[in-house]
């Protein structure tokens, strides 16, 4: 239990990207359609080694978003955490449309941490903060990076025409490049104005087409017609081992079957160790 | 402690309380200012779980609810995780949080709630549980809560004060933690307030230490509430930061707006015991 003495001797959470003057977060502007904009700095130099992170994002203009966390000096950023997706409600951005992602990932001390985003629309804005937690607490537990599986701003998951019945599998990646010690997924409804009230259960599986083995079953989220979106955005940390070179697929069922609104975009993140 | 076998066989996540016939979770009817009856999520767990993601989804509830997660036979439930407090509203949908507390194999798991509304107290609850064949010092076996007041299912009221974008005064959340914590679930929600008049942003500090000698350990945790959700979204967060026993925990916040009702929110904490 060495984490007690070490951590409590001088640790605290390190926050980056906070704009206290306006109680706000740091803004990144996307590039052209589906193109990442420039990296924006969240932390100039991490003060200590950390092993867990909370990434907090808020939409600043309407649209769908995918974002990344990088480390490295300006112009030399390397993606550390990939595949955060979210959306705004239809035709209205609002500060309440945030997302919260917990990851167990190691970040050395002395590193610059930055953030960038892309959208299906051009020149959108997404805000971000990051909270880093001391390494001494959970070093053996954390990933070296977070990799993503799925298409740009998510792959389409269709629950199908039969309500409350799992739809077909959608391949998120043909082969993982490394072993994962946990998965997390986030989803968005493509900025759809017609999302009805509904509930969804999501399965994640590994294995070849036709031989999928479920590793995450019936993870829940819901949609709301007043909200024009879904919540929560992120599944949370789902610990299950996925070996290197695994095919990863996702399917879902829904309480409604309206074509055009039942399908959604989903992206899987995997903690690489 | 063998933490990293090359291949983790038999690792799986499965949701207890999921109802595939309706694509939903198990209904929990909270009591009105009293603990409601337990709703069973599973009669007997089929394997041991190391941790889980708690899902709480609005179905009808319109105000704050505190949830107990328990194990044990009907009438003999033992609370495993006490008083996870959220404020439910249909537009803000659902919440989740990672909970690193183990659930044994072969036990009944049930949930109950205490709400504050004479008629609307239904919600949906499920646990996506991870069964993995390795162990870590991060997982706990017990939890303790601080901050909740059962008389109104309220928490410690955090008032950012009348000056925008400036930290308000500290409010005590826990006088003294009873045990060492591996981390804690930070529960942030409004109280009663049925509507939010605009876009509100908050930066919350969590501190330890005696009154007037507080040391911030979690700085500027960002939350937001909007006039269309009438609620703080993502109000449940697991904070992977240890707190020693005997700690006084307090909180303060700043807000971008100053409306006397909408700027105030409530905080409770549920510590994962080491």
What can you see in these coordinates?
The complex is a heterodimer of chains A (273) and B (274). Chain A has 1 helix and 20 strands. Chain A has 273 residues and is mostly beta strands. Chain A starts with a helix and ends with a strand. Chain B has 274 residues and is mostly beta strands. Chain B is globular. The interface between A and B is large, with 76 and 80 residues. Strand 16 (213-224) of chain A pairs parallel with strand 1 of chain B.
Instruction: State the end-to-end distance of chain A.
Output: 22 Å
Dominant shape of chain B: globular
Helix content of chain A: under 10%
Low-confidence stretches of chain B: 1-7
**Head-to-tail CA distance between termini of chain B:** 16 Å
Number of helices of chain B: 0
Largest interface: A-B, 76 and 80 residues
Mean pLDDT of chain A: 91
Strand content of chain A: over 45%
Provide the succession of SSEs of chain A: HEEEEEEEEEEEEEEEEEEEE
Class by SSE composition of chain B: mainly beta
Estimate the helix proportion of chain B, in percent.
Answer: under 10%
Please report which band the strand proportion of chain B falls in: under 5%, 5-15%, 15-25%, 25-35%, 35-45% or over 45%: over 45%
Secondary structural class of chain A: mainly beta
Per DSSP E runs of 2 or more residues, the count of β-strands of chain B stands at 21
Number of DSSP strand runs of chain A: 20
State the shape of chain A.
Answer: globular
The total count of helices of chain A amounts to 1
């Amino acid at each position: 239990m060495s984490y007690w003495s070490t951590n409590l001797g001088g640790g605290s959470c390190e926050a980056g990207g906070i704009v206290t003057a306006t109680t706000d977060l740091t803004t990144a502007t996307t590039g052209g359609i589906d193109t990442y904009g420039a990296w924006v700095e969240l932390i100039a130099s991490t003060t200590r080694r950390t092993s867990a992170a909370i990434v907090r994002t808020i939409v600043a203009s309407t649209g769908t978003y995918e974002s990344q966390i990088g480390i490295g000096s300006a112009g030399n950023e390397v993606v550390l955490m990939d595949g955060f997706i979210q959306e705004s409600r239809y035709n209205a951005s609002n500060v309440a449309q945030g997302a919260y992602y917990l990851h167990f990932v190691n970040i050395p001390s002395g590193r610059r941490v930055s953030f960038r985003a892309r959208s299906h629309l051009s020149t959108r804005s997404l805000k971000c903060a990051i909270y880093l937690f001391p390494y001494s607490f959970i070093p053996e537990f954390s990933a070296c990076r977070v990799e993503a599986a799925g298409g740009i701003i998510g792959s389409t998951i269709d629950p199908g025409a039969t309500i409350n019945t799992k739809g077909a599998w959608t391949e998120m990646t043909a082969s993982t490049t490394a072993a994962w010690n946990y998965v997390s997924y986030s989803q968005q409804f493509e900025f759809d104005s017609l999302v009805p009230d509904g509930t969804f259960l999501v399965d994640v599986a590994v294995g070849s087409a036709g031989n999928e083995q479920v590793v995450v079953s019936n993870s829940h989220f819901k949609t709301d017609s007043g909200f024009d979106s879904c919540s929560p955005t992120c599944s949370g940390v789902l610990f299950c081992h996925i070996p290197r070179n695994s095919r990863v697929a996702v399917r879902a069922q829904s309480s409604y079957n309206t074509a055009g609104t039942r399908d959604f975009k989903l992206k899987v993140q995997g903690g690489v160790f | 402690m063998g933490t990293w076998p090359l291949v983790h066989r038999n690792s799986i996540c499965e949701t207890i309380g999921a109802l595939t016939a309706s694509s939903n979770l198990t209904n929990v009817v909270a009591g009105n200012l009293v603990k409601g009856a337990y709703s069973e999520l599973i009669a007997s767990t089929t394997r041991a779980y190391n941790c889980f993601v708690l899902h709480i989804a609005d179905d009808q509830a319109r105000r704050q609810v505190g949830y107990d997660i328990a194990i044990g036979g009907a009438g003999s439930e033992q609370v495993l995780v006490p008083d996870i407090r959220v404020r439910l509203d249909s537009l803000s949908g659902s919440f989740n949080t990672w909970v690193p507390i183990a659930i044994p194999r072969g036990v009944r798991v049930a949930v109950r709630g205490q709400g504050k509304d004479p008629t609307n107290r239904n919600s949906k609850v499920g646990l996506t549980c991870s069964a993995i064949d390795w162990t870590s010092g991060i997982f706990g076996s017990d939890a303790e809560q601080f901050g909740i007041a059962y008389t109104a299912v309220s928490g410690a009221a955090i008032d950012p004060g009348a000056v925008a974008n400036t930290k308000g005064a500290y409010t005590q959340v826990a006088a003294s933690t009873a045990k060492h914590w591996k981390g804690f679930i930070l529960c942030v929600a409004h109280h009663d307030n049925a509507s939010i008049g605009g876009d509100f942003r908050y930066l919350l500090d969590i501190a330890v230490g005696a009154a007037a000698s507080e040391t911030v350990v979690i700085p500027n945790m960002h939350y937001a509430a909007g006039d269309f959700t009438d609620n703080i979204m993502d109000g449940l967060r697991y904070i992977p930061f240890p707190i020693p026993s005997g700690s006084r925990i307090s909180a303060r916040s700043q807000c971008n707006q100053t409306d006397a009702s909408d700027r105030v929110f409530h905080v409770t904490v549920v510590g994962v015991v080491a």
